[in-house]
Amino acid sequence: MENETIELTYERATLGRRVAAFLVDAFLSLLTGAIFLLLTFYLLSVSPFMKSIYQQRDDIQLNSHLYIKNDSNNIIQLKESISKDTALTIKEKNKKYDNALTYFFDSNLFFNENEGNEIYKNLKGNAKGDDNNNLFNNDGIEIYDDSLHNDYYLSFYEDSYQKALSYMSWNNEYRNLNRQLLLIDTFSVLGTLLFPFLIFSYVIPLFNVRTRQTLGMMATKIALIDVNGLSVKWWKFTLRFLFFYVIELWGSLLSFFIPFIVSLTMAVLSKTHQSLSDYITNTYMVSIDNKSIYKDVFEYKLAQQNTTKRSFIQNDIYTPEDKKKD
Fold it and tell me: Which pLDDT tens digit goes with each residue over 167-192?
């Protein structure tokens, strides 16, 4: 007995439709992600745990004297405050820097015993003017008290301030607090953006068992089928999603969009017009303007039988004219 062959014909989805579907899904994902992100950051801002971390970091910054509170009660770098204060003379700016740096390098919070003082003393000892003469004496006091050297001193203090910030960043407690904040912010952003993408690109089409359509695909009337012209099984669709997410999406972000370029080139120039993820999983994007996607061969045969039956009934309707003939 010969095997029965069933031929299913679909029109391939045009590149324009596929791009339009992708843009719709991307827009919905980004919009939902932005809403979730704002909500997440709001919840974090009122969280007692986050407030505690920020308070600890703020205390360390203020205790360093490298940061101050501005008129709006926001903590800013001392350098920002000095540079914006146009009423200060250069000499007054130098004095503010020196007082803050002296306090910082003398603080036991950031240095052991006299370690900080020695560092600041060495910085002053190596400071030179344009004439290659020392700017400070052995006690760390400014040698020159004239307007010609004020700019040299300001340049030294600004450079030393940046070095002080670097030393501050190596404080264990301060570094741990910043690491916690960075991890929380990073996972918050990735999580709130990943969740909508997962919903719109995986969960919704996973429940669209017949067509595996996203909302964008529904809008553009395209669907996903397997190599047999039937619905894509859930495990194959999951494999396709994982390949797209890991290789095409993250791989593109980490490798100058090479996987994305390869996938787009395949979709445009290959004979089957499959993207990279479709090629790997042997799936196809097709147009379904006037077509149905069948889950399996049995469903296809049942649909054909119902179609034939309806056609037979319509062709044999019993009418009053037929009765008269009888």
Answer: 999 999 999 999 999 999 999 988 89
DSSP three-state, residue 241: helix
Q: What is the per-residue pLDDT for 304?
A: 77
Q: Alpha-carbon distance 254 to 251, whole Å?
A: 5
Which helix (H) or strand (E) segment is 212 a member of?
Answer: none
| Domains of the chain, residue spans | 11-42+190-312, 50-181
Contact 105, 164 (CB under 8 A): yes
Tell me which amino acid residue 253 is: L
Quote the pTM value: 0.72
Contacts 24+ apart (CB under 8 A), 107-114: 107/63, 107/64, 109/60, 109/63, 109/64, 109/171, 110/64, 110/167, 110/168, 110/171, 111/167
Beta carbons of 217 and 57 less than 8 angstroms apart: no
Q: Return d(Cα 50, Cα 44) in angstroms, integer.
A: 6
pLDDT digits (tens, 9 = 90+) for 150-170: 899 999 999 999 999 999 999
Comparing C-alpha atoms, which of 33, 19, 10, 13 is closest to residue 198?
A: 33
Q: Are 240 and 228 in contact (CB under 8 A)?
A: no
Note the helical H segments in the chain: 15-45, 48-64, 78-84, 90-105, 115-125, 147-169, 172-198, 204-207, 215-220, 234-243, 251-254, 258-269, 276-281, 297-315, 320-325
Predicted local distance difference test score (pLDDT) of residue 4 = 65
- 115/117 Cα distance (integer angstroms): 6
